Each structure stands twice: as C-alpha cells, then as structure tokens.
Prior knowledge:
InterPro entries: Ribbon_hlx_hlx, TacA_1-like. The chain is mainly alpha-helical and 100 residues long. It has 5 helices and no strands.
Amino acid sequence: METDRMSANTDKKQERINLRLQPQAKAMLERAASFEGKTVSSFILASAITHAEEKIHEHETMQLAAQNANEFFQALDKPVRFNPRLVAALEEHQYRVANH
C-alpha cells in the first residue's frame, strides 16, 4: 500500500519556480490574492498562465482585415512562378543536402 502512495505522488510531480521580489510587490500580490480568495502561489500562477496564453496567441495568430484577407487568399490561388535565382538556390540546396 505504501508503494501505491509513492507512485501516486511521483505521478503528480510538479516543477518549481522561485521568485525574489521587493516587500512592496509581495504585499501587493498577497492583497490581490486575498481579494480572490487564493493563495499567493495560485494567484501568481493563474495570472502568469493567462498572460502566457495571451502572448502565445498574439505571436502565433495572424489577424487580417477583410481586404487584406481577400488579397492573401487571392495570392494563394495564383500559380507559383519561380524566378531563375530562386530555382538556382533550390538546386544548390538540393545538391548540398544530397551530397552531405
């Protein structure tokens, strides 16, 4: 039975982050956490996760105005035309990759 508890504990292993902050910042976080009925750790984690999700979305999502979206999709519908320099670069790349 002790083995079961130990394996359950290892399954829930979590990472740790330590922060150093000014006393005023700590007091502010404690006050804000208390308003939400959370511990300081859970308040910081929830806030950080929300901000991280927003940043990731901001950097991984492209939003276009209707006119720009139409131009983008029209460009995708056009056949691709390779200029001679691009063709040469692709051939050079293929040669180097195939020979190494």
